[in-house]
Amino acid sequence: MSTSPSTSSNRKKPFIIHKQAREMARNVLQICIEEKKDNNLAYSLNNALDRAARYTGLTKRTLTRIQTESKIGSLRSPSKKGKMCKKKTNLNVDDFDRSVIYRCIEEFYLTKKVVPTCPKLLAAIREKIDFPWGVTSIRKLLKAMGYKWQKCHNKRKILVEKPAVVFARTNYLRKIRQFRENDRNIFFLGETWIDNNLTFKKCWRNDYIDAVLTDTSSTNRLILVHAGSRHGFLDGAKLLFKAGTATGDYHGQMNSTNFEKWVTNMFIPNLPQASVVVMDNAPYHNVQENKVPTKSSTKTVMLDWLSRNNVEASLSMRKVELFELIKLHAPQEKTFKIDQLIRSHGHEVLRLPPYMCDLNSIELAWAKVKRDVREHNVNSDLSLKRLKEVTEMAINQVTEEDWSGYDDHVISLEEHYWQKDVSIENAIDKFIIEVSDGEDSDSDSALSVIFASDSD
């Protein structure tokens, strides 16, 4: 005997109206009743936003934001913290784009003579590079790049670099200037990828770089590790291998182990005596030697570190006591394994300051190599064997004259940053003084516009 489906199964689930919506509905109904009694609208029909704010109890700003959001897509519910629920944004901003952002901020202070706000900075950045993210992402990126909003006496905010970032750049520039004055051999090392799907994207341009090549997915991708100086690539230091494999000493993605093998077997043996090695702060360059334990380290790790550093400690001591000993005897600066390895052979090591990849001459060489590969890869269908051949040919086409030009360009940038840091420092000090002096003024001066922060 067949049974017909129950009518209850076809019945729609009850629509649940939560407390806030109920209060808003009550408010709308109450005002409508009052208007009926008065036989008059509280606001005219032409004042739609004022009427909606009166009925709902929401601010006009909130209603405008909801209207804008509805035009873009479906409305979303806010999270418990009060922020809109959004998917996690992946800010894939490379070092070259970060350099562009740095220059944009520099232009605001030194050319436009104003303090940048995030919306204005976003507009300036989009004029130079492809930047699909919004103001919120700019704030996050600025923080990641070492910037902060510094409050003046009148609580206005000015965008400045954190002292540690400025110090790292100043320290680097001072040291490399000294090495150049002493006519030392300076070698820049680095790694890059070569893909059979190389494509260009919009970016800042100069005489040496036409465009930045995007990182596209490909089954045929090579990792290139090399070093060079003003006189060209270092003979015997080239390492070119297929990415993604896992056999052999170097046949895998670059990591600290493979990088150390390259430095030991291919780089150091070919370096001239008493050279200076410049490298960036890639994670596999930064394996620490004698790494200092943290508060969360186990008691055993703390005791082992203290023992290796000839500091007396006993098992009966508590972790808080051990950590105080560690802080007392910890070195002021981190020491990296690669740096110590290179220095043990009589060379000096310089670490590039954060976000200053444009001070690395080898990045300009990479750009030329990739451009040459792309010119031989019209259909983006090179086999792995052919990709290697084209890459080898492109590397050989980077001449000593090219490297000399790259080095001259970097030297000019070093001088540029050296001078600009002083200029920006003076400009920010001047802005702070002017704002502080005018903080009691009631007039809407230009400074009020200049220093208005969008951080709220």
UniProtKB/TrEMBL annotation:
Annotated ranges, domain Tc1-like transposase DDE:
247-380
Q: Which GO terms describe its molecular function?
A: nucleic acid binding
State the protein's name.
Tc1-like transposase DDE domain-containing protein
Origin species, per record, is Euphydryas editha
InterPro entries named in the record: RNaseH_sf, Tc1-like_DDE_dom
Q: Where are its TM segments located?
A: none
